[in-house]
Design brief:
Elements lengths: L3 H4 L26 E7 L2 H24 L10 E3 L3 E7 L8 E7 L2 H4 L6 E3 L3 E7 L4 E6 L4 E2 L10 E6 L10 E7 L3 E7 L6 E5 L3 E7 L2 H8 L10 E3 L23
Parallel strand pairs: 1-8
Antiparallel strand pairs: 1-11, 2-3, 3-4, 4-13, 5-14, 6-11, 6-13, 7-10, 7-12, 9-10
């Protein structure tokens, strides 16, 4: 089987840059994200699951604060724009994937939205919400909603204008709202734009990066760092008002 490093070229201009910005005017998604509603849970069950997983992240960050990872070693407790992260399972020679948990920040509490971005490799993300919490999932391309795996209420789906674009530039943003007490899976192809913002205190991501260390080699990075595989589509983060709206509910046809 042909290796990805032989068939797919680099995406980054500066391989080690952890805040590289791509001009929004020239980007076009090569594919579409696919979202699958998995299950909706009773509030108390959803909260138990989210609390248990986010608790692992918080414990890892407390430990990192008490015993800092030595220079040159992989730091498993990290910080992303959307939340605090704990790498559950790092890659190793012969196994190029990793898996991490992210404890979402409450966008409304921080008055900050994460930026639209893309990755130099594909991603698989499971988003989980508890009571009084939603996640707004956004992309520059329409998001394909796959048939739910069980009973699932209609999703709120809508489009708006991407905020913060250069003067005179309009880009449409497509949004899906993950409701409270829900599990939703999302498949993110390489180079496809996406943006996650939680509104409320109870949300977590369980994410698998199936080619994370291959990306490091393909992009020519000098070392393995999770954020180095990210390319942002905006220079600055916007206020919560630019990503907190949940729109009007409508049913999106499945693929």
């Amino acid at each position: 089987m042909t290796q990805p490093t032989e068939t797919i070229g680099r995406m980054k201009r500066s391989p080690d840059h952890e805040d590289e910005i791509l001009d929004i005017r020239g980007h076009r998604d090569p594919d579409r994200n696919r979202l699958t509603p998995v299950v909706q849970l009773p509030p108390e069950t959803a909260l138990t699951v989210v609390d248990a997983l986010s608790g692992l992240v918080r414990a890892a960050h407390r430990e990192e604060g008490e015993r800092t990872t030595p220079a040159g070693e992989l730091k498993r407790a990290q910080v992303f724009e959307e939340g605090d992260v704990f790498m559950l399972e790092p890659p190793f020679p012969g196994f190029f994937a990793d898996r991490y948990l992210m404890d979402f920040y409450d966008t409304a509490a921080r008055d900050l939205c994460s930026r639209m971005h893309l990755h130099t490799g594909l991603r698989f993300v499971r988003m989980m919400t508890g009571p009084d919490t939603t996640i707004r999932v956004s992309s520059l391309s329409p998001i394909t909603i796959c048939p739910p795996t069980g009973r699932f209420a209609p999703l709120s789906c809508f489009a708006d204008d991407l905020p913060g674009t250069p003067y005179g530039v309009r880009r449409e943003r497509h949004n899906v709202i993950v409701p409270p007490n829900a599990w939703v899976d999302m498949q993110i192809p390489r180079g496809v734009s996406h943006q996650f913002n939680a509104v409320g205190p109870n949300a977590v991501i369980d994410s698998v990066h199936p080619e994370e260390s291959i990306e490091t080699l393909r992009e020519g990075m000098s070392g393995y760092r999770m954020m180095a595989q990210t390319i942002f589509l905006a220079k600055d983060r916007g206020p919560a008002a630019t990503c907190a709206d949940t729109g009007a509910p409508e049913t999106t046809p499945p693929r």
